[in-house]
Amino acid sequence: MAIEIIVSYDGTDMDQDALALGQALAGAGASLALAYVRHAAEEEGEREQLAANEAAVLLDKGAELLGQPDVPRFIVFSASTPEGLRELAKSEEASLIVFGSEYRTPPGHVEPQTSARRLLDGGRIAIAVAPSGFRKHSDKKITTIGAITPEDDPCVKTTAEALAKRLGAKIETNPHVTPDFLVIGSKIGTQHGRVSMSAAGLYLMGTVHCPVLALPRGVELEF
Length: 223
Hints:
Order of helices and strands: EHEHEHEHEEHEEHE
Structural class: alpha/beta
Largest sheet: 9 strands, mixed
Strand order of the largest sheet: 3-2-1-4-5-9-8-6-7
CATH topology: Rossmann fold
Radius of gyration: 17 Å
Number of strands: 9
CATH class: Alpha Beta
CATH architecture: 3-Layer(aba) Sandwich
Number of helices: 6
Helix content: 25-40%
C-alpha cells in the first residue's frame, strides 16, 4: 500500500501538532508515515551510531504517540529539510506532507514554518499545516471542511468533497463560520502541478484558526 501522508516529525511540540493532524487525516484509512531529516552523518563512527539511535528513538516515540507501533518511519539525509522531504514524498508516491506551525506561533494560529514555506513556494506536493496547540485537541474530529476555490481550478472543491466523504464530514459553505479544516488552492497563474500561495492566501492561513491544506495548481488529491 502506497504511503499517502508523510508527517515531518522531530519531537517538538509543533511537530506533535503535525502528528495529531496527520492522525486526524488518516483516520478513515489513509496510510501514514513519519519522517525525520538529518542534515549530515557524523564522521566518527561512535558519534554516528549515537545520532542514528537518537533519531530512531525520536521516531519510535512519535509512533507511540500515534498508538501505531508499526507505522513506517524514515530517517532522511539531506542538507535541506524541505528537499529531503520532497524527495521522500516523490520516492514513496505520497500525496501530502504535514507540518506543524512555526515556533512560538500563538495558540490556534497557523504560521507555516520555514521548511513548509519553501514547499509552498513552487513545490509539487500538497502541504498541510497544523495550528499551534492542535495536539491538545487531537480528539476533536474533522466534521466540517471549507474550500477556497479559484474560479478556474475545480480540483480544490473536488479534493474537499473527497476528504469530507472519507471522514464523514460535511462541506461548510457559510463564509462566516470557521470549518474544522480548510482546503486552499494555489493562486491564479501558478504553473500546473506547483504550489504557490498568494499574499491573501498566506494571510488567510493565519486567521482561520484551523488546519489548512494547500494544493498544487490543478491537482486533485484522491482521499
